[in-house]
């Protein structure tokens, strides 16, 4: 899946007719378009829908045609509709003055026992964040994903009180899902949205594509995500005997509302369906939204309504709902980050301080520790071979008798899971006993019970190869995997985690934060091919996102009046720059390097410190409007989004002045001056002094250098003057700017690139 690496994505060609009664007629001529009208002009949803129908009726000429065409009416958080239209009909609608944009539908990809202890988030004491936030009991989190497997014990509602009276949502029944039975005081909402996908590509053959026409989760992705956010305590859980402990969500008392908008084992999500899910979630009364999905480069502008998730998130954030989303799984290449809008909290993935070493003992008594999720039993000494075609993806080209009854060594330069899958299939089909895969670090391990698939790096793989070539009868023994926790296991940004800078707005630092997203143990669907007793280990930024969503739930519980930007600031400015033990965080890729803000944003999320940040960089809708102006969004379009007349100021504001908890300057030539404002959320009478760690070759000056907060001075501004000593175009150099009162260290990352010659692509 896109944002989840454990599954291999396939091209989606067919879709189940779940909710839709749409009859596919002139499918060759009509496609799904989203007609975006901005802020709704009526509070009555029925009036909004009637307005949409009238607009279509004036174009199509009859109520029957309107009914046949319309897919969704967006009527809660904003106004618009999805409909099947010809290209000329879409063009006619786009010319109406009340229409902001008419855009084609978009498909998005879906991008444990140790996680919370590793992050220091334990409910053990009365001083812990989990305890003080009452485990998130007052908060409702909306999860837009592939649905839920409601029978999992992680959704039990023991000890829960009544559902909050403010909740307006519901549990929809459907195939193998009874809303009155499967929902409870914890799982309080469950809806599904497939009309956009069905209208886009037609019905699909249920015989070839297993799915449920209901909120029930088929492949387990959504179940894994929601149970990571708020699963109930469940002791004694392991995966193939590994990672044993008490499994729980970050906010185990939270209420969960599930919005199934992603379908089939490929994990594709229609933009029209996702937008409808966001619209419904806003109406239903969720407090936090979690989206483990995203798109790939090239991206639409974050202010472009063709980026449907970004637009829906804007309306959610404007209503005080934080939106947490995945960075994507296209790393380690630069500029691959998705979900780049500044109002979204974008999450990268790291490893835990946990690994699964697997002993490879060669015939010369040298033991190498690879990585695997291999339950055993141990494979005793067996023949070891490196076939003529040693490429992991070409093992099937070898004669079967060269691999039969042997353990096979192969090499691959690919970072995806595909070579491992190909190697396992080829060796198994040839009657082989196991495979050792030499590769760059990918953090993608395929679990197995009886067939070892062990990963090593190129250096260790070469050691094994030299051993094979040194003897006539090479042999190897492979032990069952073991669980190793804490030192000497290091924390790293995962190879697959998408990296910044943003390809469309490089002055907006992305990702914002990093969290564990490798081999996360959580609940899953029983249909999941990797399910063991209803649990699985999955990897991806999809798995890191719900970790941060759970923390956002706790912060929202503790500070219910904080804005989404204040919560983001608290998380970014208090993050670890090292792992919790104080060791440096590296970033895996073609070569391992120290992590920088384009790998992990502010750093590794630190939940306990985020609860008491001292100062926050706060923003309101008005600040995002100024950002839209800086991004050259037209006055008319901004007015439609806001539902009121808006004129951008002259001169145009600078994107560098957006009050983010970061400073990113992508095109510094001589000097630039920018402004930030901090709000005191700590002790009333506080004195903060600035500490500057400038990027290499860059001078940074801050005015003033001291802040004195009191009952009347709770919000203060400062200017930052940045100059460069470089005389050539450079890459990015990194530093930090910290406000400290000796109790709180409010740190923001500085990322600066000198560009003497602007808009220049340097390939030399």
From TrEMBL:
The active site is at residues 145, 221, 542. GO terms for biological process: proteolysis. Residues 136-579 form the Peptidase S8/S53 domain. The keyword Repressor does not apply. Residues 657-752 form the Subtilisin-like protease fibronectin type-III domain. Residues 385-463 form the PA domain. It holds the Pfam family Inhibitor_I9. CDD domains: PA_subtilisin_like (cd02120), Peptidases_S8_3 (cd04852). Residues 32-110 form the Inhibitor I9 domain. One of its GO terms (molecular function) is serine-type endopeptidase activity. InterPro entries: PA_domain, Peptidase_S8/S53_dom, Peptidase_S8/S53_dom_sf, Peptidase_S8_His-AS, Peptidase_S8_Ser-AS, Peptidase_S8_subtilisin-rel, Peptidases_S8_3, S8pro/Inhibitor_I9. Keywords: Glycoprotein, Hydrolase, Protease, Serine protease, Signal. One of its GO terms (cellular component) is extracellular region. Residues 1-20 form the signal peptide. It comes from the Eukaryota. Belongs to the peptidase S8 family. This is Uncharacterized protein. It comes from Brassica campestris (Field mustard). The lineage of its organism: Eukaryota, Viridiplantae, Streptophyta, Embryophyta, Tracheophyta.
